[in-house]
Structure formats: structure tokens, C-alpha cells
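2024-03-11 09:14:02 INFO receiving multi-entity request
2024-03-11 09:14:02 INFO entity count = two
2024-03-11 09:14:03 INFO echoing inputs for audit
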Amino acid sequence: MKLSQIGEFSLLERLRNRFHARSRGLLLGIGDDAAVIKTAGNTLVTSDMMVEGVHFDLSWSTPFQLGFKLVSVNISDIYAMGGIPRYILLNFAAGKDCTMRFFEDFFDGIEYALKTYAVSLVGGDISASDRIMLSVTAIGSAKTIVRRRGARPGDKICVTGTLGDAACGLELLRRMKRTVDLEDTKKRHRSPLPWETAVSLMRRHLMPVARDPSAISGKATAMIDVSDGLLVDLGRLCRESGVGARVRIADVPRSDALKTAASSLGLSARALSLSGGEDYELLFTVSPKRKTYGICIGEITRSAGVEVIDDRGRRMNISHKGYQHFADQG
Amino acid sequence: MKLSQIGEFSLLERLRNRFHARSRGLLLGIGDDAAVIKTAGNTLVTSDMMVEGVHFDLSWSTPFQLGFKLVSVNISDIYAMGGIPRYILLNFAAGKDCTMRFFEDFFDGIEYALKTYAVSLVGGDISASDRIMLSVTAIGSAKTIVRRRGARPGDKICVTGTLGDAACGLELLRRMKRTVDLEDTKKRHRSPLPWETAVSLMRRHLMPVARDPSAISGKATAMIDVSDGLLVDLGRLCRESGVGARVRIADVPRSDALKTAASSLGLSARALSLSGGEDYELLFTVSPKRKTYGICIGEITRSAGVEVIDDRGRRMNISHKGYQHFADQG
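2024-03-11 09:21:47 INFO inference complete, emitting structure
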């Protein structure tokens, strides 16, 4: 069954019934010209887009994984401000030959994400397109906002988890060129790596889980989520704060799975942990006097720029281009 | 100059400088993981997408017109709830060979719309894509919400202006197949119609101005904006309210330009005013006792469905499919 056999109005009606949200503060959800929410204090809003062939590849992403990730990526931006996510709006565009199966699986992934983050889908629209185009707006609230600006010389630089996993998982998927059932523990897919190792990395790319900042946001002086790679995102935080940073390469957390995979794939785990994108860990700075939640990877410095120090304390020479749209990737 | 010669980060920096918004309630605009706004009471949120080749055609839309319309369409949804628009977030995706000229003209159109509606651009993102894909989220506030639900039998049905103009303008543009400088009053483009007539209709399609509901929202029992055509949108309002409607065809407002154009193009002005989309007039219902702002075109009835009455009081036999995505258009 294709979407074209159902029609936009029936599809919207299905979504309205499925996501008939009841949550505190929600006065009116899907089905009118706009949703109505009750807010007080600081409201956070962020919006992102995902385009087939640019942000995702259906050769290795299932619709379920795609739906989950789309929400995670936006929730991560609310978390990165120290906020609590509350609502999302979703725009979905797909070709006329898109199947109902795809549509339902995609919205299963959305629903799973809504439950994971305790948020409600309150609006958006669906339309035809020649390829899949998605956009999400996430809305949250926060008592205390943690900005990218605010890091001070001497502050510790911390992350909430291992880096480079998602980029390594993507590389694995590129080589395997097929979708993976992440929950399938019985059937062993053919993979160049032990299956548990491979799955843990691919999961980080396919279904990243945004990190709740509630243990951090009261203490952090500045914060950002790692979407484009540690060095790029740390560079952003430093530029906004008017400071620099020194990162000790040995202290950047790398998972055992990453180390195993990188050595067997001929990749550098260190390079992946510095420049690989889409880990969606939180990167934040705290006063050196504060007890630190997270893993300390370096310090904020007075001089501009991000430098990386090797095991012997020497400054490493690294080119750290992260991903950016509209640019030839080095 | 192409966007690929500038790169995403520089483009974002330009936008941040250009749209450095200062407005009441805005705590943090473009440049962090999320924007921060101060809200109180009812907050309205709505999001829409526009995809090249589906929602617009660059053979006859200029980037400036496109930017303006993208904002208008979303503001119209806030107005249709009786709200006051405050902020927008914008996602912009385009091909790598998209020119800086296009980008700047598009954002000129956005800026013109921001001024028109007194709203601020506070976030969003830009990314690469193989065609132009846009989404906007609009955020507003309202003391009193006017829903689609709420119309009662006996209520008058009113609209804020003439209908069918935008659809006729689109038909003109389809035939001319080129962009039009709507401000160009000196050079006369070749057109099958007097130029002022043609321009007024094309403007309604290319640069629709959303209707401020402040004179209406205190009185209206239900409201919607006319985006997919009078009969479709009135049908939605009726379904939500659990009522029907009787529309007098003679009372549906049609502009002189529409009448002139329709007769010379061999189209039916009446059909266009009933089924033509994208006029973005407000359609609302009010108690029969209330003095009416707007043009009364009929009454709400007890029986379900929308019927149209001709000049002699007879029920007309009309097929009123409006535009819907994922459906063969009848």
C-alpha cells in the first residue's frame, strides 16, 4: 500500500489519532492551525532538518531508526542548553510511492523516541516530495540556561561519554551497505567484527540517545552537544566564550569497541574521537573547584584556538575540519 | 559566487549578524544550540514545509517572493488561531551550486516579511540538498484561542477578503512561465491581460499577506485560514465543529481583477473562488447577533456537509476537491 492510495487527509487523521497527546501544559495538540501550549519562564526552541542522501542513507538506516534519530538530534539541542524537552513538531515529506509500511515504521521510531524523552508530538505537516525530507522543531523549558558562552580560563573541559563511536559505526555501515536489526541478537549478520562490537558502534550512529544534562547544568559554565566532532564543537564553545582550550588526547574517552573496530578496519581511533561527528555527548566546562560529573579531557586556556596535547605533553599537529555543509570536505 | 565557496559556518555567521534580533521576550537568538524566549500564557506553535517542485516553482517565483511567502504561510496559521506572531525558526536547504545572489535575495524576502509581521528570526539551520527545501516554525501568543471547533448552527460564515485571486494568479504564471517583478510599474511585461489586473492576481499567489485577526478574534466562534480552498477549509471547520454549512455563491467575494482575468482566460471565477487555494484570507463564524467584520457568505447549518446555493436559491451540484498531497488531483 502506497501513501498515494491513502491521501494526505487520511494520513493526518491517523497521526492525530495515534499521537493524541495528553500532557501537562498542552492545551491543544495536532489538528488545528497551530498547537497551543502553556509555558512559563524560559522557553527553548530549536529546529533541524534531515534530507535523504545528505543526512541519512536508506541503504543502511531503517525508517524506525531514522524516526528515532530525528527526534534525538533535536532533543540533544534542548539538553545542550540545560533544558527539559517538552514538545516536538514534525514535518514529513516523501515521494508518492512511499509505502504505508515505511510511514508506519518511521512513526514507530518517532513514538519510541517520544516515550524515551517523555515529549509529545503536537503538530507539523506532511507533504509530497521526490525524496524524503524531514524537519523537527523541539520545544523545552529551563530554569537555568547553559550557553556556549561562559567558559573561563582554568575551567575543566568534560564530556559525558565516549567519542568517535558514531563515526566508526557509520564507516562500518558504509562498508556493509545494508540495514541492520539492532535488536536481533540471534541471527548473526556477516560483519568484519565481533557482532556485539559492531552493533554497539552502529547503534551510536543509527539511534543516538541524547544525554540528559540534569546532573550537569547547575554546575556547567558553558555547554554544547557534540554533533560535528569534538574539535569543531569545542572550537565553537571557545569562540563564543572568547577563550581557547587544551585537550589531552590520552584523556579523550574511547570505547573498547572503537579501539577494536578501528584497528581491524585500519582507522585511527584517536582521529575518530577528535573529529568524528554525531556522538551527541554533551561537552561542557566547569570551574576547577567543582567536583566533576563526566570525564575531564582538558582545560580552558586564555589564548585562542584548540590545541591537542599528546601523551608526552607535546602539542600535536592536527587538521580538524569537522563536517560542514556547502564545503568540499577535506 | 556559490554557497559552496562560502561554506556553512560563514553563511550561519552572516545570518546571525544580519538577524541579530532584539525584541521583547527574546533572551537569546541565533547562535547557540537553541533560542531562548520568555513566554507567558498561551503559546502557539506551528510548522510547515515548502519543497521545490511541489510547493513552489522557481520558473515564476523569485527567491525574494519565496522567502516572503514562506513566512506568510506560517504567520497565517498563528493568525488563524487568533494569535499574535512573535518568532520564527527557519531551515534552509539548497544545492551546492546555489548562488549567494539567490541566498541573499531569499533572506531579503524573509527580512521584509519579518518587518511586515513584526516578528524575529531566532533560529533554524542551513544544509545542503539537491533541491530547495524550506521549513518554518512560527511561535506566537494569544489571550483567547479561536479554534476550528466552535461554530454553531445559525452562525454567520464570513471571510476577510476576496477568494480565487491566488489560484487565478498561479494560472497566469503557469501560462507566462517566467518571474515577474511585482514592483515594476514602468516596464510592461507581455501579458494576456491589462498589467495592473495581472499583477494584482499574481501578487496574491506570489506574496500573500496573512490577515491580522485582531478585529475578529474576540467575536469569532471558529476560525481557519483559507489555504486549500474555501470549500475544503470550510469543510474542515464544519467537521471539527460537528456542523454543516450553506454558502451563497453570489455572496462569495470575487475581485474585479479575478472576473476580468477569468473571462479572458476561459476560466470560471466562481469555481476559482470556491476551490482555489492559497488566498490566506481568514474564514470564520460569528453569532448572528454580532455585528460582522468581514464579508458574510452564508450560515452554519445543523446537517453535515457544505452546500452551495445559486442565485435562485437552488442547491448547486459541485465537486469540491481541494489540493491534497499524496492523491491524484481530480
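2024-03-11 09:21:48 INFO post-check: The first helix of chain A runs from residue 8 to 18.
2024-03-11 09:21:48 INFO post-check: Chain A touches chain B through 74 residues (CB under 8 Å).
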